[in-house]
Records
---
Amino acid sequence: MRRHRNVKIVATLGPASSDYDMIRTLHEAGADVFRLNMSHGSHEEIRERHGIIRQIEQDTGGSICILADLQGPKLRVGVFANEEGEMLEEGAAFRMDLDDVPGDATRVNLPHPEIFEALEPGAALLVNDGKIRLKVEDCSESHANCTVIAGGVISNRKGVNVPDVVLPLAALSDKDRKDLEFVCELGVDWLALSFVQRAADVIEASDLANGRAAILSKIEKPAGVNNFDEILEESDGIMVARGDLGVELPVQNVPPIQKRLVRKCRKAGKPVIVATQMMESMIESPMPTRAEVSDVATAIYEGADAVMLSAESAAGAYPVEAVTTMNNVAIEVEQDPTYTQIIESSRETKGASIADGIVSAAREIAETTDIKAICCFSQSGTTALLTARERPRVPILVMTSRVRTARRLTLSWGTNCVMVDELKRFKQAVVNSARAALRQGYAEKDDMIVVTAGVPFNVPGSTNILRVAPCDERLIFSTDPE
């Protein structure tokens, strides 16, 4: 299924989008990647949705990417004697401690000793997505006496954010480790890792995945922003999760952080998703707000690989409309001449390898002559990612014999994956490229394409050949690729 845009759309599945007909409709409306949220749904439900996606993939003949999003450690307060909760007034004293006695208007249990170990006087504690803000006055390894800075009703098991300190918590909980093994055996393509604070978090997940899925680090904490360069180095991709970032940081800090992180990912040639609250009003409305449309457009103008829908497609009343609207916004933005100007002015090339030179030359040739597509052969995905990093003006056709590579690359900007047999000679690569370009409508008879590959074949990162070749419609009917 050919998309007439380069940015990809990630749609989260949930109660509103769990059967074959709805998921296929979402795919046909524009969803390239489906997100399975491990915070919701049993393993059996996840298995069922995974099976439906793979069936749709088989029925439609394309590659569909599946992203499993691990929950991460959840920090929550305990329960209150009053089940309706307590009102905390601004300026009042409030205590959090390890005592599991039900709370009242003066204190509550916080069953996370690791938080108390890291706290210092002056640190902030945010409850219920930051609606309640507490300032730590004094603390020990078993309690924190606080002053209420912003009040409100606090009730059972509301979430707690600790933005000012790096918590001595691993990104993977026991539940996450079980979920990770389950989805890797199931056959997902990407793992989204929550609560990433340091590079070591990514290394642990990568070791457990052991190549069965690529690792996407979610940047949702100040520590993740501060340690971003090291995290990016160890990650296969990044998600800018703006929801929690907007809770733990001043909201005005989030847009410039988003821009910086997207630029760094583009330079590194690693996929980056911009996520959270992109069209949140469409949970209940068939139309987004103008501000939401501008938000999606901004991420696309920045050159993000993908934009993501969460509750809009998982639990909203208008999941198909949300995907359709995002698809339409993407097409419109990418047709804007300003989009091309912004993308090209923000292009940065990292590295000076032969492969870097080849893909850069392919893009320059395509943009200065009448080239219809760049066709790259990529078994590991490295060449395709380098080509996508260039953000060329023409379509990118990725030839691979590995279905796992094709699925993972579906997340990357501009990639259109075509399954081919393993190759032994570069001439076969040229013939297969011309066939694919003609069959899928990227080129017509005698149009020119650029073909890149690495010889010997099947060696990751060995891109060393570039050829400009004509398309010949007779290739479609030829049985001899030699």
---
Amino acid sequence: MDNKDRNISMIRDLVNAHAPSGFEDEVLEVVREQAAGLGDFEEDHIRNLYIARKGNSGKPLMMLDAHADEVGFMVHSVRPNGTIRFTNIGGWNPGTLPSSRVLVRNAEGKYIPGIIAAKPIHFMSQADRDRKPEISDLSIDIGSTSKEETEKVFKIRIGEPIVPDTPFTYDEEHDIMMGKAFDDCVGVAALIETMRRLEGEDLKVDVMGVVSAQEEVGSRGAKVAVSKVNPDISICFEACPSDDTFTEPYAIQAAIKKGPMLRFMDRTVICNPRFQRYALDLAEKLGIPVQASVREGGGNNGAMICVSEKGTPVIVVAIPVRYIHSHNCIATYHDFNAAVELAVAIVKELDEEKVAGF
């Protein structure tokens, strides 16, 4: 199996795992399988997983970060008619939700299929049709006919996670990956593949991989991780919203099939300008396709890393994803592989003097 086949299989396993914020365990199981032999594992109570590269020896420390969690939902309560009231974990566009398939975990750990209920057009008033849906107005229908049946037969209880029911697919002819949770399963896969390609290399920096928890609800895992790791420099692998299907051509900064996006800033972080320019210049020198962006919204774990005790220089290497934070995302292996190539090149080039200069 070549690297591409292996990586597509890894991405598939990560994407098909169920890991809304706070429930990252299934993704971490896949990471432990895929990263076996790359370093020593350690896991903390918030469910960050640390991978200390073999051969680390007290050199300047590079932290590679990617978050394990996806956006999802949680069971709030059960209505008298047996449908489930739910709340969001992370940011969703409510307009994309009605009629979508989901999986609801029950008290036995089994995932029960359901549908986010949409009132049939036959029963909708004009006011219904004009009204923008809110998550608090929606329900999940698992086919139950009463609250008792939902709780006693289906064994649904409050506090359980809910995830999109969207299996991963890959169209190799056109290089199109589709599925849920590309934010940030493609980033986690990029972190693992970067550490694989660095295996056995004589580096001038040490490397710590961190698969962090709860990014979608405020970068909570990264806050814990950066305090523990205390890195000298960092790369965040992310998935970023692609803007190439609705933005004026002059303003497109995250198109698919154009390489990873490196952001100068977003709502939460201004990435270290010197490190950012270094990475962009290195990509140009090596012929690695990249895109640069200035984002007026959004956020990522870099916000926690850059305000660490050291003010750690950080860049965000993000794989463009169309329709991010929805049940159906689109991304390409081309962009994934370019992100890995750039990260590997950066780590190989860095030394103590360069890190100090950022």
